[in-house]
Amino acid sequence: MKESIVIPIGPQHPCFKEPMRLDISVDGERVVDADIIISFNHRGVEKATEARTYIQNLYLMERVCGICSHSHATCYCQGVEEILGLEIPERARYIRSFIGELERIQSHLFWIGIAGHEIGWDTLLMYTWKDRERVNDMLEQISGNRIHYAMNTIGGVRRDIREEDRESLKRGLEFLEERAAYYVHVITEEETFLKRTRGIANLPTELAKQLCAVGPTLRGSNVKMDVRADDPYAAYEDLDFSVVTTDTCDVWGRGFVKASEILQSIRMCNQVLEELPGGDIRVKAPAKVPAGEAVSRYEAPRGELIHYIKSNGSNMPERIKIRAPTLANWLVMSEMLKGVYLADVAIVTDAIDPCLCCSARVTITDRSRGERRVTTLDALRRRRDGRTGVA
Amino acid sequence: MRSEEVRGLIEGRFPGIAIRVPRERRVMVHIPLERLIEVLGFLRDQGVTHLSTISVVDRIEEKLFEVLYHLYWENNEITVRVEIPRENPVIPTVTPVLPGALTYEREIQGMFGVMVKDIPDPRRIILPDDWPLDVYPLRKDYMVQ
Predict the structure, then answer these.
(1) I need a labelling partner for A160 at 20 to 30 A (CA). Which of A27, A67, B16, B56 fits?
(2) A234 Ramachandran zone, left/alpha/beta (phi>0; psi -120 to 50)
(3) What is the mean pLDDT of residues A89-116?
(4) Cα separation values, A12 from A8, A40, A341, B54, Å
Protein backbone atom coordinates (compact mmCIF):
# COMPACT_ATOMS: atom_id res chain seq x y z
CA MET A 1 0.00 0.00 0.00
CA LYS A 2 1.27 3.41 -0.95
CA GLU A 3 1.64 5.94 1.80
CA SER A 4 -0.22 9.18 1.47
CA ILE A 5 0.86 12.53 2.85
CA VAL A 6 -1.55 14.82 4.65
CA ILE A 7 -1.37 18.48 3.65
CA PRO A 8 -3.24 20.85 5.93
CA ILE A 9 -4.77 23.82 4.12
CA GLY A 10 -6.13 26.60 6.32
CA PRO A 11 -7.74 27.69 8.61
CA GLN A 12 -6.15 30.83 7.19
CA HIS A 13 -5.20 30.35 3.59
CA PRO A 14 -5.32 32.59 0.51
CA CYS A 15 -7.63 30.18 -1.31
CA PHE A 16 -10.34 30.48 1.32
CA LYS A 17 -12.22 33.67 2.00
CA GLU A 18 -13.30 32.48 5.45
CA PRO A 19 -11.66 30.25 8.05
CA MET A 20 -11.84 26.53 7.38
CA ARG A 21 -9.32 23.74 7.33
CA LEU A 22 -8.93 21.03 4.76
CA ASP A 23 -6.73 18.08 5.61
CA ILE A 24 -5.89 16.82 2.17
CA SER A 25 -4.32 13.36 1.86
CA VAL A 26 -2.34 13.17 -1.35
CA ASP A 27 -0.65 10.45 -3.29
CA GLY A 28 1.72 12.39 -5.50
CA GLU A 29 -0.39 15.17 -7.01
CA ARG A 30 -3.70 13.34 -6.54
CA VAL A 31 -6.02 13.88 -3.62
CA VAL A 32 -7.03 10.55 -2.10
CA ASP A 33 -9.03 11.83 0.86
CA ALA A 34 -10.17 15.11 2.33
CA ASP A 35 -11.29 16.00 5.81
CA ILE A 36 -13.08 19.29 6.31
CA ILE A 37 -12.98 21.14 9.61
CA ILE A 38 -15.25 24.17 9.87
CA SER A 39 -15.37 24.84 13.59
CA PHE A 40 -13.64 28.23 13.59
CA ASN A 41 -16.50 30.62 13.25
CA HIS A 42 -19.45 29.72 15.46
CA ARG A 43 -21.27 32.85 16.62
CA GLY A 44 -24.18 31.43 18.63
CA VAL A 45 -26.94 33.02 16.59
CA GLU A 46 -29.42 30.24 17.36
CA LYS A 47 -28.86 30.61 21.09
CA ALA A 48 -29.09 34.39 20.81
CA THR A 49 -32.51 34.23 19.15
CA GLU A 50 -34.01 32.68 22.27
CA ALA A 51 -33.24 35.81 24.30
CA ARG A 52 -34.57 38.33 21.78
CA THR A 53 -38.00 39.41 20.64
CA TYR A 54 -39.32 38.47 17.22
CA ILE A 55 -38.58 41.94 15.86
CA GLN A 56 -35.05 42.02 17.30
CA ASN A 57 -34.46 38.60 15.76
CA LEU A 58 -35.35 39.94 12.36
CA TYR A 59 -32.22 42.10 12.42
CA LEU A 60 -30.15 39.27 13.84
CA MET A 61 -31.31 36.99 11.01
CA GLU A 62 -30.14 39.51 8.42
CA ARG A 63 -26.71 39.19 9.93
CA VAL A 64 -26.46 35.41 9.78
CA CYS A 65 -24.92 35.98 6.36
CA GLY A 66 -23.77 39.08 4.57
CA ILE A 67 -24.14 37.88 1.04
CA CYS A 68 -27.65 36.46 1.46
CA SER A 69 -29.09 38.68 4.17
CA HIS A 70 -32.48 38.85 2.47
CA SER A 71 -32.70 35.04 2.32
CA HIS A 72 -32.45 34.52 6.06
CA ALA A 73 -34.76 37.40 6.90
CA THR A 74 -37.41 36.26 4.43
CA CYS A 75 -37.20 32.65 5.55
CA TYR A 76 -37.61 33.75 9.16
CA CYS A 77 -40.50 36.13 8.44
CA GLN A 78 -42.36 33.49 6.45
CA GLY A 79 -42.12 31.07 9.34
CA VAL A 80 -43.34 33.57 11.94
CA GLU A 81 -46.15 34.70 9.63
CA GLU A 82 -47.20 31.09 9.23
CA ILE A 83 -47.50 30.61 12.99
CA LEU A 84 -49.40 33.90 13.27
CA GLY A 85 -51.70 32.89 10.41
CA LEU A 86 -50.86 36.21 8.78
CA GLU A 87 -51.59 36.74 5.08
CA ILE A 88 -49.18 39.31 3.70
CA PRO A 89 -50.25 41.66 0.85
CA GLU A 90 -49.67 40.58 -2.74
CA ARG A 91 -47.41 43.56 -3.36
CA ALA A 92 -45.16 42.56 -0.48
CA ARG A 93 -44.82 39.04 -1.90
CA TYR A 94 -43.67 40.44 -5.23
CA ILE A 95 -41.21 42.84 -3.62
CA ARG A 96 -39.73 39.99 -1.55
CA SER A 97 -39.17 37.99 -4.73
CA PHE A 98 -37.70 40.99 -6.53
CA ILE A 99 -35.12 41.66 -3.83
CA GLY A 100 -34.45 37.93 -3.51
CA GLU A 101 -33.64 37.68 -7.21
CA LEU A 102 -31.42 40.78 -7.20
CA GLU A 103 -29.61 39.20 -4.29
CA ARG A 104 -29.17 35.99 -6.27
CA ILE A 105 -27.74 37.96 -9.21
CA GLN A 106 -25.16 39.73 -7.05
CA SER A 107 -24.26 36.48 -5.27
CA HIS A 108 -23.80 34.53 -8.50
CA LEU A 109 -21.76 37.33 -10.08
CA PHE A 110 -19.68 37.32 -6.94
CA TRP A 111 -19.12 33.59 -7.39
CA ILE A 112 -18.13 33.80 -11.06
CA GLY A 113 -15.51 36.37 -10.08
CA ILE A 114 -14.12 34.23 -7.27
CA ALA A 115 -14.08 31.19 -9.56
CA GLY A 116 -12.07 33.18 -12.09
CA HIS A 117 -9.68 34.21 -9.35
CA GLU A 118 -9.23 30.61 -8.15
CA ILE A 119 -8.12 29.49 -11.61
CA GLY A 120 -5.74 32.42 -11.96
CA TRP A 121 -7.96 34.41 -14.29
CA ASP A 122 -8.39 37.66 -12.43
CA THR A 123 -9.73 39.52 -15.45
CA LEU A 124 -13.00 37.67 -14.94
CA LEU A 125 -13.02 38.77 -11.31
CA MET A 126 -12.59 42.41 -12.32
CA TYR A 127 -15.35 42.19 -14.92
CA THR A 128 -17.98 40.46 -12.79
CA TRP A 129 -17.34 42.49 -9.67
CA LYS A 130 -17.64 45.70 -11.63
CA ASP A 131 -21.01 44.54 -12.96
CA ARG A 132 -22.02 43.45 -9.49
CA GLU A 133 -21.73 47.09 -8.42
CA ARG A 134 -24.71 47.82 -10.64
CA VAL A 135 -26.86 45.28 -8.74
CA ASN A 136 -25.74 46.72 -5.43
CA ASP A 137 -26.62 50.19 -6.67
CA MET A 138 -30.10 48.99 -7.61
CA LEU A 139 -30.54 47.44 -4.19
CA GLU A 140 -29.37 50.66 -2.62
CA GLN A 141 -31.82 52.62 -4.74
CA ILE A 142 -34.72 50.59 -3.37
CA SER A 143 -33.66 49.93 0.20
CA GLY A 144 -30.98 52.50 0.99
CA ASN A 145 -28.45 49.75 1.60
CA ARG A 146 -26.11 47.74 -0.57
CA ILE A 147 -25.85 44.57 1.50
CA HIS A 148 -28.16 44.59 4.50
CA TYR A 149 -31.28 45.72 2.73
CA ALA A 150 -33.50 45.40 5.83
CA MET A 151 -36.49 45.10 3.52
CA ASN A 152 -38.44 42.56 5.52
CA THR A 153 -40.68 42.89 8.46
CA ILE A 154 -43.09 40.40 9.96
CA GLY A 155 -46.23 41.05 7.92
CA GLY A 156 -44.64 42.29 4.70
CA VAL A 157 -41.85 44.59 3.58
CA ARG A 158 -40.62 47.91 4.95
CA ARG A 159 -39.98 49.75 1.71
CA ASP A 160 -41.85 50.01 -1.54
CA ILE A 161 -40.57 49.88 -5.11
CA ARG A 162 -41.39 53.44 -6.15
CA GLU A 163 -42.93 54.25 -9.48
CA GLU A 164 -40.19 56.76 -10.28
CA ASP A 165 -37.51 54.07 -9.81
CA ARG A 166 -39.07 51.66 -12.26
CA GLU A 167 -37.35 53.03 -15.37
CA SER A 168 -33.85 53.06 -13.95
CA LEU A 169 -34.34 49.59 -12.48
CA LYS A 170 -35.39 48.39 -15.93
CA ARG A 171 -32.31 49.94 -17.47
CA GLY A 172 -30.20 48.22 -14.83
CA LEU A 173 -31.79 44.86 -15.63
CA GLU A 174 -31.22 45.42 -19.34
CA PHE A 175 -27.54 46.08 -18.69
CA LEU A 176 -27.25 43.01 -16.45
CA GLU A 177 -29.00 40.80 -18.96
CA GLU A 178 -26.44 41.67 -21.60
CA ARG A 179 -23.60 41.03 -19.19
CA ALA A 180 -25.05 37.75 -17.90
CA ALA A 181 -25.53 36.48 -21.44
CA TYR A 182 -21.88 37.33 -22.03
CA TYR A 183 -20.78 35.39 -18.92
CA VAL A 184 -22.80 32.35 -19.98
CA HIS A 185 -20.99 32.60 -23.31
CA VAL A 186 -17.61 32.90 -21.55
CA ILE A 187 -18.32 29.89 -19.34
CA THR A 188 -19.48 27.77 -22.28
CA GLU A 189 -16.85 28.79 -24.85
CA GLU A 190 -13.73 30.13 -23.18
CA GLU A 191 -10.89 27.62 -23.13
CA THR A 192 -9.33 29.09 -19.99
CA PHE A 193 -12.47 28.24 -18.05
CA LEU A 194 -13.26 24.94 -19.77
CA LYS A 195 -9.78 23.51 -19.30
CA ARG A 196 -9.88 24.06 -15.57
CA THR A 197 -13.47 22.98 -14.90
CA ARG A 198 -14.68 20.34 -17.39
CA GLY A 199 -14.60 16.83 -15.95
CA ILE A 200 -13.17 18.05 -12.64
CA ALA A 201 -14.60 16.88 -9.31
CA ASN A 202 -17.26 14.56 -10.56
CA LEU A 203 -20.41 14.29 -8.44
CA PRO A 204 -22.74 11.62 -9.86
CA THR A 205 -26.48 12.30 -9.64
CA GLU A 206 -27.18 9.43 -7.24
CA LEU A 207 -24.40 10.41 -4.86
CA ALA A 208 -25.55 14.04 -4.82
CA LYS A 209 -29.05 12.92 -3.86
CA GLN A 210 -27.84 10.41 -1.29
CA LEU A 211 -25.65 12.94 0.49
CA CYS A 212 -28.39 15.59 0.46
CA ALA A 213 -26.59 18.26 -1.55
CA VAL A 214 -28.53 21.44 -2.28
CA GLY A 215 -28.71 24.33 -4.72
CA PRO A 216 -26.54 24.78 -7.83
CA THR A 217 -24.29 21.94 -6.60
CA LEU A 218 -27.26 19.55 -6.80
CA ARG A 219 -28.68 21.03 -10.00
CA GLY A 220 -25.23 20.83 -11.61
CA SER A 221 -25.53 17.08 -11.00
CA ASN A 222 -28.80 16.93 -12.91
CA VAL A 223 -31.29 16.94 -10.04
CA LYS A 224 -34.18 19.28 -10.61
CA MET A 225 -34.73 20.55 -7.12
CA ASP A 226 -35.42 24.21 -6.40
CA VAL A 227 -37.56 25.43 -3.50
CA ARG A 228 -38.91 28.27 -5.66
CA ALA A 229 -40.46 25.72 -8.00
CA ASP A 230 -41.20 22.83 -5.61
CA ASP A 231 -42.41 24.67 -2.54
CA PRO A 232 -43.19 28.18 -3.84
CA TYR A 233 -43.14 31.11 -1.42
CA ALA A 234 -43.32 34.89 -1.94
CA ALA A 235 -44.52 35.45 -5.54
CA TYR A 236 -42.87 32.45 -7.19
CA GLU A 237 -46.15 30.72 -7.88
CA ASP A 238 -46.98 33.57 -10.30
CA LEU A 239 -43.53 34.10 -11.81
CA ASP A 240 -42.27 32.36 -14.94
CA PHE A 241 -38.85 30.78 -14.76
CA SER A 242 -37.19 27.49 -15.50
CA VAL A 243 -35.02 25.46 -13.16
CA VAL A 244 -31.58 25.19 -14.75
CA THR A 245 -29.82 21.82 -14.55
CA THR A 246 -26.93 20.16 -16.37
CA ASP A 247 -25.85 16.55 -16.60
CA THR A 248 -22.10 17.19 -16.67
CA CYS A 249 -21.89 16.70 -12.87
CA ASP A 250 -18.58 18.63 -12.66
CA VAL A 251 -17.26 22.03 -11.59
CA TRP A 252 -18.22 23.43 -14.97
CA GLY A 253 -21.84 22.30 -14.49
CA ARG A 254 -22.05 24.07 -11.13
CA GLY A 255 -20.74 27.24 -12.75
CA PHE A 256 -23.00 26.98 -15.76
CA VAL A 257 -26.06 26.59 -13.51
CA LYS A 258 -25.16 29.72 -11.55
CA ALA A 259 -24.50 31.83 -14.64
CA SER A 260 -27.71 30.68 -16.32
CA GLU A 261 -29.70 31.33 -13.16
CA ILE A 262 -28.76 35.01 -13.42
CA LEU A 263 -30.69 35.16 -16.69
CA GLN A 264 -33.69 33.49 -15.07
CA SER A 265 -33.52 35.94 -12.17
CA ILE A 266 -33.50 38.90 -14.56
CA ARG A 267 -36.52 37.43 -16.33
CA MET A 268 -38.39 37.25 -13.00
CA CYS A 269 -37.34 40.77 -11.98
CA ASN A 270 -38.67 42.16 -15.27
CA GLN A 271 -41.92 40.33 -14.74
CA VAL A 272 -42.25 41.75 -11.23
CA LEU A 273 -41.74 45.29 -12.57
CA GLU A 274 -44.42 44.67 -15.20
CA GLU A 275 -46.98 42.97 -13.00
CA LEU A 276 -46.39 44.48 -9.57
CA PRO A 277 -49.82 44.54 -7.92
CA GLY A 278 -50.99 47.69 -6.14
CA GLY A 279 -52.00 48.01 -2.51
CA ASP A 280 -50.30 47.96 0.85
CA ILE A 281 -46.83 46.59 1.45
CA ARG A 282 -47.41 45.27 4.96
CA VAL A 283 -50.00 44.33 7.53
CA LYS A 284 -49.62 44.89 11.23
CA ALA A 285 -48.31 41.90 13.17
CA PRO A 286 -48.81 41.35 16.91
CA ALA A 287 -45.69 41.35 19.11
CA LYS A 288 -46.67 38.09 20.82
CA VAL A 289 -46.78 34.93 18.79
CA PRO A 290 -49.14 32.11 19.87
CA ALA A 291 -47.64 28.70 20.66
CA GLY A 292 -46.97 26.80 17.47
CA GLU A 293 -44.32 25.74 15.02
CA ALA A 294 -43.42 26.22 11.38
CA VAL A 295 -40.91 24.84 8.92
CA SER A 296 -39.93 27.59 6.50
CA ARG A 297 -37.96 26.90 3.33
CA TYR A 298 -36.26 29.30 0.93
CA GLU A 299 -34.05 28.93 -2.12
CA ALA A 300 -31.02 31.00 -1.19
CA PRO A 301 -28.34 31.63 -3.85
CA ARG A 302 -26.39 28.64 -2.49
CA GLY A 303 -29.39 26.33 -2.19
CA GLU A 304 -32.14 25.24 0.13
CA LEU A 305 -32.30 27.23 3.34
CA ILE A 306 -34.50 25.95 6.14
CA HIS A 307 -35.63 27.55 9.39
CA TYR A 308 -37.55 25.59 12.01
CA ILE A 309 -39.33 28.00 14.33
CA LYS A 310 -41.10 27.03 17.54
CA SER A 311 -43.02 29.62 19.53
CA ASN A 312 -44.30 29.47 23.10
CA GLY A 313 -46.92 32.23 23.23
CA SER A 314 -44.52 34.94 24.42
CA ASN A 315 -42.78 37.66 22.43
CA MET A 316 -39.61 35.58 22.16
CA PRO A 317 -39.22 32.31 20.26
CA GLU A 318 -38.71 29.01 22.06
CA ARG A 319 -36.30 27.73 19.44
CA ILE A 320 -35.06 28.72 16.02
CA LYS A 321 -33.06 26.21 14.05
CA ILE A 322 -31.21 27.53 11.03
CA ARG A 323 -29.69 25.27 8.42
CA ALA A 324 -27.86 27.29 5.82
CA PRO A 325 -27.15 25.72 2.43
CA THR A 326 -23.37 25.49 2.78
CA LEU A 327 -23.66 23.13 5.76
CA ALA A 328 -25.60 20.72 3.56
CA ASN A 329 -22.87 20.73 0.92
CA TRP A 330 -19.84 19.78 3.07
CA LEU A 331 -20.49 16.05 2.79
CA VAL A 332 -20.49 16.10 -1.00
CA MET A 333 -17.46 18.34 -1.02
CA SER A 334 -15.22 15.80 0.65
CA GLU A 335 -16.44 13.29 -1.95
CA MET A 336 -15.80 15.70 -4.83
CA LEU A 337 -12.25 16.37 -3.71
CA LYS A 338 -11.28 12.70 -3.95
CA GLY A 339 -9.31 12.09 -7.10
CA VAL A 340 -8.68 15.70 -8.14
CA TYR A 341 -5.23 17.24 -8.55
CA LEU A 342 -3.92 19.24 -5.62
CA ALA A 343 -3.86 22.32 -7.86
CA ASP A 344 -7.61 22.01 -8.39
CA VAL A 345 -8.52 21.96 -4.71
CA ALA A 346 -9.17 25.71 -4.66
CA ILE A 347 -11.64 25.74 -7.54
CA VAL A 348 -13.36 22.54 -6.40
CA THR A 349 -13.85 23.96 -2.91
CA ASP A 350 -15.09 27.19 -4.37
CA ALA A 351 -17.55 25.42 -6.67
CA ILE A 352 -20.06 24.92 -3.85
CA ASP A 353 -19.70 28.65 -3.12
CA PRO A 354 -18.94 28.03 0.55
CA CYS A 355 -20.22 30.55 3.03
CA LEU A 356 -18.92 29.84 6.50
CA CYS A 357 -20.58 32.57 8.45
CA CYS A 358 -23.82 30.79 7.57
CA SER A 359 -22.45 27.37 8.36
CA ALA A 360 -21.06 28.02 11.77
CA ARG A 361 -23.11 30.12 14.20
CA VAL A 362 -21.76 31.40 18.21
CA THR A 363 -20.82 32.33 21.57
CA ILE A 364 -17.81 34.49 22.18
CA THR A 365 -15.20 33.16 24.58
CA ASP A 366 -12.38 35.25 25.95
CA ARG A 367 -9.29 33.34 26.92
CA SER A 368 -6.85 36.21 27.07
CA ARG A 369 -6.05 35.55 30.73
CA GLY A 370 -5.66 31.84 30.23
CA GLU A 371 -9.03 31.15 31.88
CA ARG A 372 -12.23 30.07 30.25
CA ARG A 373 -15.17 32.40 30.63
CA VAL A 374 -17.88 33.59 28.36
CA THR A 375 -17.83 37.28 27.71
CA THR A 376 -20.79 39.48 26.89
CA LEU A 377 -21.14 42.03 24.17
CA ASP A 378 -21.44 44.73 26.81
CA ALA A 379 -18.16 43.64 28.36
CA LEU A 380 -16.51 43.82 24.96
CA ARG A 381 -17.94 47.30 24.44
CA ARG A 382 -16.64 48.42 27.83
CA ARG A 383 -13.19 47.16 26.95
CA ARG A 384 -13.27 48.92 23.61
CA ASP A 385 -14.53 52.16 25.12
CA GLY A 386 -11.94 51.96 27.90
CA ARG A 387 -9.19 51.67 25.34
CA THR A 388 -10.34 54.48 23.12
CA GLY A 389 -11.29 56.71 26.00
CA VAL A 390 -14.97 56.97 25.01
CA ALA A 391 -17.26 57.44 28.01
CA MET B 1 -47.83 14.77 -4.67
CA ARG B 2 -50.59 16.22 -2.49
CA SER B 3 -49.89 16.21 1.24
CA GLU B 4 -53.06 14.19 1.90
CA GLU B 5 -51.72 11.47 -0.39
CA VAL B 6 -48.45 11.37 1.55
CA ARG B 7 -50.45 11.11 4.74
CA GLY B 8 -52.54 8.26 3.27
CA LEU B 9 -49.40 6.42 2.19
CA ILE B 10 -47.81 6.62 5.64
CA GLU B 11 -51.05 5.81 7.46
CA GLY B 12 -51.60 2.83 5.15
CA ARG B 13 -48.30 1.31 6.24
CA PHE B 14 -48.39 2.43 9.88
CA PRO B 15 -52.05 2.44 10.98
CA GLY B 16 -52.80 4.60 14.02
CA ILE B 17 -49.67 6.72 13.60
CA ALA B 18 -49.90 10.33 14.85
CA ILE B 19 -49.80 12.36 11.65
CA ARG B 20 -51.17 15.72 10.65
CA VAL B 21 -51.11 18.06 7.69
CA PRO B 22 -50.95 21.62 9.06
CA ARG B 23 -51.06 23.01 5.53
CA GLU B 24 -50.46 21.88 1.98
CA ARG B 25 -46.84 20.75 1.44
CA ARG B 26 -46.23 20.16 5.16
CA VAL B 27 -46.65 16.77 6.85
CA MET B 28 -45.90 16.25 10.56
CA VAL B 29 -45.39 12.72 11.85
CA HIS B 30 -44.95 11.90 15.53
CA ILE B 31 -43.58 8.46 16.35
CA PRO B 32 -42.04 6.60 19.29
CA LEU B 33 -38.24 6.32 19.16
CA GLU B 34 -38.31 2.53 18.61
CA ARG B 35 -40.00 3.00 15.25
CA LEU B 36 -37.67 5.71 13.94
CA ILE B 37 -35.51 3.54 11.68
CA GLU B 38 -38.52 1.54 10.49
CA VAL B 39 -40.45 4.69 9.48
CA LEU B 40 -37.45 6.41 7.87
CA GLY B 41 -36.60 3.14 6.10
CA PHE B 42 -40.13 2.94 4.73
CA LEU B 43 -39.94 6.54 3.50
CA ARG B 44 -36.55 5.88 1.94
CA ASP B 45 -38.01 2.89 0.08
CA GLN B 46 -40.69 5.19 -1.30
CA GLY B 47 -37.96 7.40 -2.73
CA VAL B 48 -37.19 9.91 0.03
CA THR B 49 -33.47 10.68 -0.03
CA HIS B 50 -33.29 14.32 1.00
CA LEU B 51 -32.87 15.12 4.67
CA SER B 52 -32.91 18.91 5.01
CA THR B 53 -31.70 18.92 8.58
CA ILE B 54 -32.27 17.58 12.10
CA SER B 55 -33.62 20.01 14.72
CA VAL B 56 -33.66 19.51 18.46
CA VAL B 57 -35.91 21.31 20.93
CA ASP B 58 -35.02 21.21 24.62
CA ARG B 59 -38.29 20.87 26.55
CA ILE B 60 -36.57 21.19 29.89
CA GLU B 61 -39.73 21.41 32.03
CA GLU B 62 -41.06 18.15 30.64
CA LYS B 63 -37.55 16.63 30.96
CA LEU B 64 -37.31 15.64 27.32
CA PHE B 65 -35.72 16.48 24.01
CA GLU B 66 -37.70 16.59 20.84
CA VAL B 67 -35.71 15.48 17.78
CA LEU B 68 -37.12 16.42 14.38
CA TYR B 69 -36.00 15.00 11.05
CA HIS B 70 -36.95 17.35 8.25
CA LEU B 71 -37.27 15.36 5.05
CA TYR B 72 -38.18 16.61 1.64
CA TRP B 73 -40.00 14.55 -0.94
CA GLU B 74 -42.18 15.34 -3.95
CA ASN B 75 -43.06 18.90 -2.95
CA ASN B 76 -43.65 17.95 0.68
CA GLU B 77 -41.65 18.76 3.76
CA ILE B 78 -42.14 15.72 5.98
CA THR B 79 -41.12 16.28 9.59
CA VAL B 80 -40.64 13.12 11.64
CA ARG B 81 -40.63 13.82 15.37
CA VAL B 82 -39.42 11.63 18.23
CA GLU B 83 -39.16 12.43 21.93
CA ILE B 84 -36.33 11.19 24.12
CA PRO B 85 -35.75 11.49 27.87
CA ARG B 86 -33.47 14.35 28.86
CA GLU B 87 -31.49 12.34 31.43
CA ASN B 88 -30.54 9.67 28.90
CA PRO B 89 -30.64 11.32 25.50
CA VAL B 90 -29.66 8.62 23.03
CA ILE B 91 -30.89 8.14 19.50
CA PRO B 92 -29.76 5.60 16.91
CA THR B 93 -27.86 6.86 13.90
CA VAL B 94 -30.02 7.13 10.78
CA THR B 95 -27.00 7.20 8.43
CA PRO B 96 -27.55 3.61 7.19
CA VAL B 97 -30.91 4.82 5.85
CA LEU B 98 -30.04 8.45 5.04
CA PRO B 99 -26.24 8.88 4.61
CA GLY B 100 -26.64 12.66 4.39
CA ALA B 101 -27.66 12.76 8.07
CA LEU B 102 -24.04 12.59 9.26
CA THR B 103 -23.39 16.35 9.38
CA TYR B 104 -26.55 17.00 11.36
CA GLU B 105 -26.01 14.11 13.76
CA ARG B 106 -22.54 15.47 14.52
CA GLU B 107 -24.06 18.90 14.99
CA ILE B 108 -26.76 17.88 17.51
CA GLN B 109 -24.32 15.69 19.40
CA GLY B 110 -22.10 18.69 20.03
CA MET B 111 -24.72 21.38 20.49
CA PHE B 112 -27.28 19.45 22.58
CA GLY B 113 -25.45 16.40 23.87
CA VAL B 114 -28.01 14.16 22.20
CA MET B 115 -25.85 11.08 21.79
CA VAL B 116 -26.06 9.29 18.49
CA LYS B 117 -25.44 5.58 18.85
CA ASP B 118 -23.11 4.03 16.23
CA ILE B 119 -22.48 7.36 14.48
CA PRO B 120 -19.77 6.76 11.83
CA ASP B 121 -17.89 9.96 12.72
CA PRO B 122 -18.40 11.14 16.31
CA ARG B 123 -16.25 14.31 16.11
CA ARG B 124 -17.96 17.62 16.76
CA ILE B 125 -18.52 19.77 13.74
CA ILE B 126 -19.56 23.26 14.82
CA LEU B 127 -17.93 23.94 18.18
CA PRO B 128 -14.28 24.96 18.38
CA ASP B 129 -11.61 22.49 19.51
CA ASP B 130 -11.16 24.15 22.89
CA TRP B 131 -14.84 24.05 23.84
CA PRO B 132 -15.35 21.85 26.95
CA LEU B 133 -16.59 18.37 26.08
CA ASP B 134 -19.49 18.30 28.52
CA VAL B 135 -20.97 21.74 27.87
CA TYR B 136 -23.82 21.81 25.37
CA PRO B 137 -24.56 25.42 24.45
CA LEU B 138 -28.01 25.02 22.92
CA ARG B 139 -29.51 23.35 25.98
CA LYS B 140 -31.91 25.61 27.84
CA ASP B 141 -29.91 25.31 31.07
CA TYR B 142 -26.78 26.69 29.41
CA MET B 143 -26.70 30.38 30.21
CA VAL B 144 -24.80 32.89 28.14
CA GLN B 145 -23.13 35.06 30.75
Answers:
(1) A67
(2) left
(3) 96
(4) 10, 10, 21, 30
Mark whether A298 and A373 lie in a shared domain: no
- Band of residue A41 on the pLDDT scale cut at 50, 70, 90: confident
Can you give the CATH number for the domain in which B60 is found? 3.30.460.80
- Confirm whether B56 is domain-assigned: yes
E-strand ranges in chain A read: 5-9, 21-27, 30-37, 152-153, 156-157, 292-300, 303-311, 317-323, 365-366, 373-374
Residue B43 inside a domain? The answer is yes
Are the beta carbons of B126 and A39 separated by less than 8 Å? yes
CA gap A149, B123 in Å, rounded:
37
CA distance B76 to A190: 40
Amino acid letter, residue A279: G
Q: What pLDDT digit, counting tens, does each position of B72-96 carry? A: 999 999 999 999 999 999 999 999 9
> CB B103 to CB A308 under 8 A?
no
A330: nearest Cα among B120, B95, B121, B103: B103
Q: Residue A40's pLDDT band (boundaries 50, 70, 90)?
A: confident
pLDDT of residue A96 exceeding 60: yes
Which residue range is the domain that position B35 belongs to? 3-117
Within this chain, do residues A378 and A315 fall inside the same structural domain, yes or no?
Answer: no
Which tens digit of pLDDT belongs to each residue from A167-184?
999 999 999 999 999 999
* Amino acid code (one letter) for A380: L
Q: Is A29 exposed, middle or buried (0-12, 13-18, 19+ CB in 10 A)?
A: exposed
Specify the length of chain B in residues: 145
CATH number at residue A274: 1.10.645.10
Instruction: Please list every residue in chain B whose beta carbon sits closer than 8 Å to the beta carbon of residue A33.
Output: none
Closest approach of chain B CAs to the CA of A289, in angstroms?
17
A320 φ, ψ to 5°?
-130, 120
Based on the fold, state whether residues A372 and A224 are members of the same structural domain: no
| Closest in B70, B98, B140 to A295, CB measured | B70
What's the pLDDT tens digit per position in A204-219? 999 999 999 999 999 9
CB contact under 8 A, A319 and B58: yes
Q: Does B127 touch chain A (CB under 8 A)?
A: yes
Note whether A383 and A275 are same-domain residues: no
Helix axis angle for A325-337 and B102-112, nearest 10°, is 130
B72 reaches A (C-beta below 8 A): yes
Task: Note whether residue B107 is domain-resident.
Answer: yes
**CB proximity B118 to A under 8 Å:** no
pLDDT tens-digit profile of A357-386? 555 443 344 445 444 444 444 554 555 555
ipTM of the complex: 0.96
Indicate if the pLDDT at residue B32 is higher than 70.
Answer: yes
Task: State which residues form the domain around A371.
Answer: 367-391
Q: Which residue among B55, B79, B137 sits closest to A47, beta carbon to beta carbon?
A: B137
Identity of the residue numbered A174: E
